[in-house]
Amino acid sequence: MELIKQHVLNFLKTNKLMSVATFGSYPWIANVYYVFDDEMNLYFLSGEKTLHCQQISQNEKVAVAIVDSHQGFHDKQIGLQMWGIAKKVSDLEKLRYVLGMWKQALNEKDDNLSAEHIINNVIKSRVYRISPKRIKIFSKQLFSVPTGEEPVLEL
């Protein structure tokens, strides 16, 4: 279990973009940049008026897919699929922590992107955390198993 978690964390480090699927009156999917913590929580910034954030406010269950978009069709493919719970982050200290990770990981230099500006509505973006409940890692390089039998982390 710990080895699979380490593979997941290593994969998360090598990518920056994820697809988040939501469901309100109908399904929707959006691509967003992410950062993550040691517990494999994923964090993204997005406007509250976007469809995926409006749907999260109605239904916090989401699905996520992350793949290495540089891999070719015939390469030994690697990626993650998961489902979890998405919630808006509003704690000032947690916002500071996440935005610090965000700026470092994505080389973001905008000084206006701050926890205080989010709290005071100076900027309209909000931080969301996805707490994973189930993660499936597929990697033909790491695991020689038939499709559909890839390792799964239940959290």
From TrEMBL:
Pfam family, one: PNPOx_N
Pyridoxamine 5'-phosphate oxidase N-terminal domain boundaries: 5-103
Name of the protein described by the UniProt record: Pyridoxamine 5'-phosphate oxidase N-terminal domain-containing protein
